Amino acid sequence: MTNIRFLNGLKTIGASIVEISTESSRIITDFGMAVDFKIGTSRSLMEKHVLPNVPELFGDKQEQVKEYKNEAIFITHLHLDHTSALAYLKNDIPVYLSRPSYKLYRSLVKQGLGLTLNVNFKVFDFEVPVKIGDLTVTAYQSDHDIIGASTFLIEDGKHVFGQSGDVRLNGSHRVVVDKWMNLFKKRKLDLLMLEATSFSFDDDANLNSPNDEEIDIESKCIGDFKTILDKNDGLTVINPYSRNIERMLQMNKLANDLNRPIVWELQYARVIREFSLEYPIFVLDDGNLGLRGNTGLIPVSILTIMNNLNHFCLQNSFENLDTLMNFNKFIYLHCNGAPLGEYDPHYQTLKSFLENKKIKLIDIGVSGHATKAEICEVARTVAAKKTVFWHSFNPDAAISALQNSGLHFLRPSYKETYHFD
Predict the structure, then answer these.
(1) Mean pLDDT across 387-413
(2) 65 vs 227: which has the higher pLDDT
(3) Closest by alpha carbon to 166, among 49, 83, 54?
(4) How are strands ordered across the β-sheet holding 262-264?
(5) Threshold 0.85, pTM exceeds
(6) pLDDT at 212 over 50
(7) Domain at 217-363, CATH homologous superfamily
(8) CA distance 419 to 158
(9) CA–CA separation, 396 vs 180, rounded Å?
(10) Would you tell me which CATH number, out of the four given (3.60.15.10, 3.40.630.30, 3.90.1300.10, 3.40.50.2300), belongs to the domain 2-205+371-420?
């Protein structure tokens, strides 16, 4: 018998964690938190569903906790809401990442843009099955706003389960999503666990067929960037997310092609260099740059930018907002960098800073998540025997949208364990 227990993420965006186990084997998919701070004991945090309810993995030894001969954690992608609980892990359980995700993790840690995690990392390759005792996990490349994003097919020899991870159909890699959707359909899944982030919001796109609106939203972001560069003859400041490598590479290429190169902060420049040697990468030189570790980077000083406002773009992270005090006039492009939105108190600080300088803030960021219509399309295409919507404030809204689809749904509870004989 195979058991499924939902540990987190049933009504939150992020922290979607599930445990799939047999008598001797267990896998857990994702290990994040919906908040990024720790208050209280591991036990109290588990009760609040801040940490997943697996006390033995947090050093909270208790009697009658089942031990597994074979077990592992599999991570769909490297966003913090899918990984941050790893910081509290006190166990040498293997933690599997895709090869591109592991490369990104090491690069971010090396540059101080990510937290060093003292965990037992293992690497998987797409479409290469990984056997964990009675269970087999096969990862398929997916499309999200981060490299290395994966979708999991989990098998016990009799039953087949799918974990979508975070996914979209309107990104740059629709073909890889179509591939796993159609494969999942052929495998006749017993259960599909599908993210439903967009159903958290009333003002999201309508529920018309996604075919009514075929658009690559990453291309739209880059297109908006190009339009603004073409029209703006002054300095353009950008604030991208450090983990969206593909977008930063595209922005860097475009800006170079338009002879308006982006001057990157050193940490960002070094990460980008690790993923591409093809195009020049300019780096902000504070006078102490030196040559060590900066081979292939082209230094540009603040003074040079001030004297050539129409020649450069400038990447600026929120932590270095004071750098912008050197400039009286510029356009600020927010493209999913921190702070992410109104719910973050730092976002008001950013807005106030720009308003005081009479600077226009333009948001050209795009979502890494499927629209409501796309979520419905994934569910219909896979047509699992049962579908769970999670990673959403309102998963029931997704069920309501598909009430006449002929699909069957499971509304899971943290208190229940679901058995597959």
Answers:
(1) 97
(2) 227
(3) 83
(4) 297-301, 281-285, 262-264, 313-315, 235-240, 330-335, 360-363
(5) yes
(6) no
(7) Metallo-hydrolase/oxidoreductase (3.40.50.10710)
(8) 13
(9) 25
(10) 3.60.15.10
